[in-house]
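Colleagues,

For the teaching module next term, I've prepared a clean inverse folding example: a structure given as C-alpha cells, and then the sequence designed for it. I'd like students to try predicting residues themselves before seeing the answer, so please don't circulate the second half yet.
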C-alpha cells in the first residue's frame, strides 16, 4: 500500500462498464482483457480495495468507451437514462468514495441536453463524451444545444479520446495496427483524434457563442498545451475569420486533466484563484481546479496539506484577448 498523503486524492478519469450498455458494443471496442473486464464491472469490494491500496479517496466514475455516443437507435435515450440511474444508485450508496460524470445520448442532442440537466440535479459533476458521436465531430452545430445547456448549468463536458474514424485508421495505421494495436489508441491515435476535436471546437465558434462553456480534455490535453503557440501563429493569417484564438479558447474555457491509473501519483494545480462551482459539490473540494492569471500552463506541485486536497488535474489559466 502506498503511503497516505496529507490531503484527499480525487481521481477524475475512472471508468466502469454498465452491462446493458456494453452489450451494445460491437467489434474491437466491445472486447477487453478478462481481468480488465472484471474490474470494469466492479463498483464494490474490488474497486474500493484497490482504491485504498493506491491511496485514492474518491473516484469520479464515468462510463468507459465507446459509451452512449455510439448509440443511434430509438432506445438510445431511455437506455442512457437507465445507465445513469444505475450509476447514481452506486454513488448514493457510497457518496464518500464515488461521484460521477453522466453518459449522454448524443444521437438526440436535445434529449442529451435534458439528460445533462436531469443528472446534474441528481448530483452528477458533468458529463463525458468519448470521441466522435456516430462518426460526427462534436463541433457540429447539431450538438450545440448540449453546450448551451452545459453553460447554463455551469458544469463541464469532459472530452475523452476514442479511436479515430475507420477511414483514418485504414489510411494511417493499417500497416502496423495488427502488430501494435495500441498505436490507434493511447500510443498515438488518441492524441490526434482528441486534439483535432478541440481545435475544431475553437474554429467552429462554439466558445464565442457560449463563452462560459467548460470543456475538460483528458490525458494532459493530448499535447495541445505544448502546441498552442505554434497553432495560433500558423492560423494568424485567418484571425479575422475567427473571434477566438486557439490559445485564448483553451485558456478561457478548457481544463486540462492529467489522468493517471489508479495506483497513486502526483497532482498539480495553478496557484491562486478559486474552485469552479461544478467541483464544489464533491464531498471534498477539488483544490486542484483553480484559475490563475498567467498566460500559459503554470503549474506546480500541490502542497500536501490537510486543507489542500489533491486532484489529478491541470487547468489552463484565464487570459482575455482583445
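(Answer key — instructors only)
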Amino acid at each position: 500500500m502506498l503511503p497516505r498523503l496529507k490531503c484527499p486524492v480525487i481521481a477524475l478519469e475512472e471508468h466502469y462498464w454498465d452491462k446493458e450498455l456494453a452489450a451494445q458494443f460491437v467489434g474491437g471496442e466491445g472486447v477487453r482483457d478478462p481481468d480488465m473486464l472484471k474490474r470494469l464491472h466492479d463498483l464494490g469490494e474490488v474497486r474500493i480495495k484497490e482504491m485504498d491500496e493506491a491511496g485514492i479517496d474518491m473516484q469520479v466514475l464515468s462510463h468507459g468507451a465507446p459509451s452512449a455516443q455510439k448509440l443511434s437507435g430509438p432506445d438510445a435515450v431511455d437506455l442512457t437514462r437507465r445507465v445513469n440511474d444505475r450509476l447514481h444508485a452506486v454513488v448514493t450508496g457510497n457518496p464518500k468514495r464515488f461521484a460521477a460524470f453522466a453518459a449522454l445520448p448524443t444521437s438526440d442532442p436535445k434529449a442529451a441536453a435534458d439528460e445533462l440537466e436531469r443528472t446534474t440535479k441528481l448530483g452528477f459533476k458533468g458529463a463525458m463524451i468519448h470521441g466522435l458521436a456516430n462518426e460526427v465531430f462534436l463541433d457540429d452545430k447539431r450538438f450545440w444545444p448540449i453546450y448551451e445547456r452545459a453553460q447554463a448549468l455551469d458544469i463541464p463536458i469532459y472530452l475523452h479520446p476514442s479511436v479515430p474514424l475507420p477511414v483514418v485508421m485504414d489510411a494511417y495505421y493499417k500497416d502496423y495496427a495488427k502488430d501494435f494495436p495500441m498505436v490507434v489508441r493511447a500510443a498515438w491515435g488518441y492524441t490526434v483524434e482528441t486534439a483535432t476535436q478541440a481545435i475544431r471546437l475553437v474554429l467552429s465558434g462554439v466558445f464565442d457563442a457560449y463563452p462560459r462553456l467548460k470543456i475538460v480534455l483528458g490525458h494532459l490535453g493530448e499535447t495541445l498545451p505544448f502546441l498552442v503557440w505554434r497553432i495560433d501563429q500558423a492560423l494568424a493569417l485567418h484571425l479575422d475569420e475567427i473571434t477566438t484564438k486557439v490559445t485564448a479558447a483553451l485558456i478561457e474555457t478548457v481544463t486540462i486533466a492529467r489522468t493517471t491509473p489508479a495506483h497513486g501519483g502526483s497532482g498539480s494545480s495553478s496557484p491562486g484563484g478559486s474552485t469552479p462551482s461544478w467541483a464544489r459539490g464533491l464531498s471534498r473540494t477539488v483544490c486542484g481546479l483553480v484559475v490563475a492569471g498567467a498566460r500559459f500552463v503554470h503549474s506546480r506541485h500541490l502542497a500536501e496539506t490537510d486543507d489542500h486536497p489533491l486532484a489529478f488535474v491541470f487547468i489552463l489559466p484565464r487570459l482575455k484577448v482583445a
